[in-house]
Amino acid sequence: EISACLVGSEMCIRDRLITWAGVSNFKIRFNEKTEEFNEWKDNGIKYVENKRTKQQMPHFFQFYLDFKKNEKRFNIQSAVQSLKIPFLVIHGDNDKSVLQREGRDLHSWNKNSKFFSVKNGNHTFSSMHPWKELKLPKELQSVTETSINFIKSCI
What we know:
The chain is of the alpha/beta class. It is 37% helix and 17% strand.
């Protein structure tokens, strides 16, 4: 996973930026100085359960080493503070994967940002893969419409 905020701050994104359920801090996810972290380091891999699919997702320790090597570059707060473009932060109020507090942090770090809270929105805004329905769930429909309106407002 890479934060859109980091990409937006390093690349020349000239018009606007939108994040959906974005994280505000990579480092806190590593749980450094814990037994779990030490086991991950020793084994070189750990598995994290996807809450929705129950799939065991491999996380290689190399990810942490890459993060440490580029920690200053991967500082999301600094990246968000440096954005000079309109920035929309969308986050569900029922997101258990990335708490809404993180979206509110993103918003608080940039005066050009707007925050949109999705009522009953989980991390995927009530969608799933593969999507087999003809209509989007109301939470994702709200996110889509809000995003489109934001883009139009910046034209």
